[in-house]
Amino acid sequence: MRRLIDRDLLTALVLFCIGAVFWVDPGADVKDWIFPRLAIYLILGIAVALVARVVFAAIMKRLPDIIHFTSEDRIAFIDVLVFLVIVLVYMFVMYGLGFWLSSLLMLSLTSIYLTLDKTRHNIMLAVVVPLLTCIVFYFVFLHVFYVPFPKATWWPGLS
Amino acid sequence: MIEGLMLALTPSYLFWLTVGVMIGMVVGTLPGLTATMGTALLVPYTFALPPGAGLAMLGGLYVCAMFSDAIPAVLVNTPGTPGSMATAFDGYPMTLQGRGQEAIVASCFGSAFGTLFGAACYLLLAWPMIAIALKFGPPEFVWLGAFALTIIGSLAGDSILKGLAGGAIGLLISSVGISHGNELSRFTFGIPELRGGVSLVAGLIGVFAVPQVLSMVAELRKKEFIAEYKPKSGETLKTILKVLSHPVHAVRSAAIGTFIGILPGAGSPIAALVSYNEAVRWSKDKSGYGKGDLRGVTASEIANNAAAPAAMIPLITLGVPGSSPAAVIGGALMLRGLNPGPELFQSHGTLVYSFGWSLLLAGIVTFILGSLFAPFLVRLILIPLRLLAPLIMLLAVIGAYAIRNNIFDVYIMLGLGVFVFIVRPLGFHPGPIGLGLILGPIIEPSLVQAMYIADATSIGRVFFTGTVNIIFITVTVLSIFLVVWSRRRDRAQERASDLIEGRAAAAPEAE
């Protein structure tokens, strides 16, 4: 059973999934599909080779190469997950609140969450540094490099 | 040529050159802002200056951006532009070892060396070199790309199969969008935004920066900073001496960068990758590469900076730009009524040579400013991870968005980043995926063009005849053979050393 979470087998599974997602009707002209199809064949070929390696290792009774998760890894995983959720919400909120306000919120929230020692000084830093960053980036990217960032739609006058 | 030098050395030219270099420092350091974007934004301001001074400013920006893109690559494993992807392979491990200042100074000196070499070729060897570049057609570019793909052997880590798979995934992602044959939508899954393809810059930010940010978040409870850093006095001189202690390596990297720079469409990223690959191949001790070897940093930086002045050679001699920033500079010349091409040499020889000298001086100014600022730049890694990770994420979002002003690129960046972060524990490295993303847009159009040519003749004649093709096929096959052979040898050596250690451990127990 442990062999089912062998690193090579999981890799092969990922590669089969990628091959399946990109396996679409190639069209009539070889010039349209030769390049991606060659890449897909290579990916699927490697997936088959990895499966063969796992089978061979099982026959030879070698120990499977398993990814181990410690309790520390689980906590780190939760940190990453919370961070990603805030970033995903930021992507959604960006069109409502405008780029700069939503960026300030994202930076502050992530910085506060990632501050483990939540002293008054550290929390202050987690708010002031994002604020200063947003102000500097606002001038650099908007007024020097003319990048037109998304504007607020929920309250159009906001930014 | 002497008149050109005198012109380039006038105080006003030097002043505008320095201004260009300083802007280039900012442009290269910020991921998502490329030298192309920087030069394009600067062009309108150069109209207020004499043509030579304006060109010096643009050249200064281009050259310095090719150095400063190494700063985020070295310090936070996020290439500032695609040209510094290979710099991160050894630069970031050096930072983790507390050698960030050494890596920055090496990048800076390497960049200056590469620029001087490339600019010298521009001034002295433009015409003979262009004769070789003209022999490159679509099939030659296909083989050049295939040869560059062999770098996977150096980047794959423990498993060559997973490295190859990573490269193939990168190539596959690069083929999303409109096909080069009959302009059909490919792999767009009904999403109209995907028809424009995956932006290379957004893709590279996704592959390198996002997993790095997520790793920082994951490691937050174990360490507070990226790495320890204490400024060292005399580090600049020591590093320069270290770089100069490998003269063959430096000249080889510069020659590769210059040669690839003059090939239209290849550009700095390919130059840096091929140079890195050759540095690994020709090195007697390969074990340090990818783990913080100074030669890895200089191989990439010398080549990508040598490619910058070299990209001006086809522009000035033939009117064909060798890179995107060179195309913008060509446009700036045309807007002034100066048409790049052979006639420019005859009608405005002094301007052409003063530009060459300005590029050369830009290398020197870049080195002076870069080595002065290096100890301050490295302090970036002393920002606590809890503040740095969100800041890099914001920069990644801005970088991915700014390149095409398209929020969809940000989603792609994030998606790719999360994918790479998830598959990394399986043994995938970001390097081969990034390599595929860079090489795909070069190999596929050339392959399709070559196939159109083959329709009129035959596949065999197009791909397997011609001196350049034969040379590239030979070196590609040799390269693959060497990768397989060196990996087998390393494995055999590992087994032998394990056996010796096992016996040594067993001996006292037996006693």
Would you write up a description of this structure?
The complex is a heterodimer of chains A (159) and B (511). Chain A folds into 2 domains: 2-59; 71-144. In chain A, 72% of the residues lie in helices and 0% in strands. Chain A has helices spanning 7-22, 30-59, 71-97, 99-114, 120-144. With 511 residues, chain B is an all-alpha fold. Chain B has one domain. Chain B contains 25 helices and 2 strands. Chain B has helices spanning 2-8, 11-29, 35-46, 51-68, 70-76, 85-96, 100-124, 126-133, 138-149, 152-155, 160-174, 200-219, 235-244, 247-261, 267-282, 294-310, 312-318, 324-335, 342-347, 349-377, 385-402, 407-423, 430-456, 459-464, 467-510, and strands at 177-178, 185-186. Chain B has a two-stranded antiparallel ribbon with strand order 1-2. In chain B, helix 3 (35-46) runs parallel beside helix 18. At the A-B interface, helix 1, helix 2, helix 3, helix 4 and helix 5 of A face helix 11, helix 12, helix 21, helix 22 and helix 23 of B.
What's the layout of helices and strands?
The complex is a heterodimer of chains A (159) and B (511).
Chain A: H1 7-22, H2 30-59, H3 71-97, H4 99-114, H5 120-144
Helix pairs in contact in A: 1-2, 3-4, 4-5
Chain B: H1 2-8, H2 11-29, H3 35-46, H4 51-68, H5 70-76, H6 85-96, H7 100-124, H8 126-133, H9 138-149, H10 152-155, H11 160-174, E1 177-178, E2 185-186, H12 200-219, H13 235-244, H14 247-261, H15 267-282, H16 294-310, H17 312-318, H18 324-335, H19 342-347, H20 349-377, H21 385-402, H22 407-423, H23 430-456, H24 459-464, H25 467-510
Antiparallel strand pairs in B: 1-2
What's a quick, concise take on this entry?
Chain A has 159 residues and is mainly alpha-helical.
The tally of structural domains of chain A comes to 2
Shape estimate of chain B: globular
What is the share of helical residues of chain A?
A: over 70%
**Which structural class is indicated by helix and strand composition of chain B?**
mainly alpha
